[in-house]
Write a structure and sequence with these properties.
Layout: H1 12-40, H2 44-55, E1 60-62, H3 63-69, H4 74-86, E2 90-95, E3 98-106, H5 108-130, H6 135-152, H7 158-162, H8 165-168
Antiparallel strand pairs: 1-3, 2-3
Helix pairs in contact: 1-5, 2-5, 3-4
Length: 170
Amino acid sequence: MDTKDEPRWLDREEEAAWLSLVSVLLTLPAALDAQLEADSGMTFYDYSVLSTLTYAPNATLRMRDLALVTNGSLSRLSQVVTKLECRGWVKRRPDPDDGRSTLAVLTTAGRKKVDQTAPGHVERVRQLVLDPLTKTQVRQMREINRRMRCAIEPEGNALFTATGAEEKLR
């Protein structure tokens, strides 16, 4: 067997780093969900949808674009937006530029809910992610995450950039 055909197994240090990342990926969402559910009756995904809309021009995005930015299927997003609509935080309307598309629009009540929810969420993010790190480690984490995201999406996510989230990574 040619050495080019052999798998590139992880060495001990790489395996430890990978398993550490997997552990965070599996436990952090549940910890964020728990805080958001307790404080505001919403999930992290609900909050992600609402907060993404706060960055969008006119607090409005096409549903398919919102699904891309929040990394959810259109079906999942539709279910969540229905729930958020029932609470008065989001409304749907036809896209006047494309009759086949539907827009998700953050309502005034939805923006108020994000404003009320954000302080507790940010505090939990600080407790779980930022406070355990030094300022240097936070900068390193930002760069590490940027590099991994670029490997995952080499072309970049234009919607991620358009909503202003890209600027926060710089």
